[in-house]
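Bump. Still looking for TetR/AcrR family transcriptional regulator structure tokens.
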Amino acid sequence: MRTLSPSAEKICVIAVEHFANSGYDACSLNDIAVAAGMRKPSLYAHFSSKDDLFQAVFERAVEAERLYVEDCFAHPHSDVPGGLYCQRLGERYLGSAHLRFLLRTAFFPPAELRAWISAGFEGYLARLAALFVARMKAYRPTFEDGQAGLYRDAYMGIVDSLAVELIYAGPEAYSRRLAALWKVFEDSLALCAPEK
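Sorry for the wait, here they are.
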């Protein structure tokens, strides 16, 4: 992640809200500049283009959410690995412009930045998956790599499904989906192997 001046960081803080709420195409650099207390030409002193600003905001969103994920996995909420992250995802989505921006961008990337965004988002997901596997191996030391991989993929499917519900259906649908999927996930783990 590139280092920015304090003024450029302030622009990114404002821009993440705009991009999260409006998306790339509908977002106006002029509106961002006005919200930052400057004129549009001054914004170009910090960012060469809308793409340049968007990329800086994306890098910061990925980093913010990576740190959040690591914090969730550092403090397990329940006996089942990954529970805290899933339980808090709806609340995080409503309260974090970084997460709203990250998910919106991953699901609806600007065409010219698609490959770059996909690589960044896949890196974020890979970190989430790695943290889950590490927690799973501590939770079920008897699991072979294949079993841990199977549960990793199921967990990532749950995370993806919850994100879809938040983006398309809202908090109530997310809560219903979470309750159903997490119950099945916990039951499956309970049947799969004896606890340590």
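The CA atoms of residues 84 and 190 lie 18 Å apart.

Edit: fixed formatting.
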